[in-house]
């Protein structure tokens, strides 16, 4: 049952209270040990330990030897078996924790990829709408051609006015000057 946050935590104290080890703490310790077991330093230490054990129990003082070569170094064999029997589960526990982390990482990568895909699709739709909107906007070349057309129409209108003035100089209306002003009579 999950802890309730609206109530204080109940603390049970006994006469012989011991610290509670959570799965995460045990997992961290086992990962540390498993990492150490996979290093060249550990192999070097184990090799030196075994060599020292064999040298001491083979050539050391007879009365100080504690593992007999006659029996195949039984104590050394038992110690190495004990070390291996603890190392294997620790390594498996570390691998399981790594697999859990990898699974969580893969889920996060998948959700990140989904968000990225959604963002990319949104940007593609926005680009398409901008392209459509830009199709309706006048371009520089279009504006220039329209201005040229207007300039040509204005020049044609002025030329037509000049022609009309030359053809009918007796007109009572004041003649228009090229700059748009009127010529005074008389």
UniProtKB/TrEMBL annotation:
Residues 174-186 have a biased composition (Low complexity). The chain crosses the membrane at residues 42-59, 71-93. The keyword Transmembrane applies. It holds the Pfam family DUF1003. Residues 159-186 are annotated as: Disordered. PANTHER family: INTEGRAL MEMBRANE PROTEIN-RELATED, MEMBRANE PROTEIN. This is Membrane protein. It comes from Actinotalea ferrariae CF5-4.
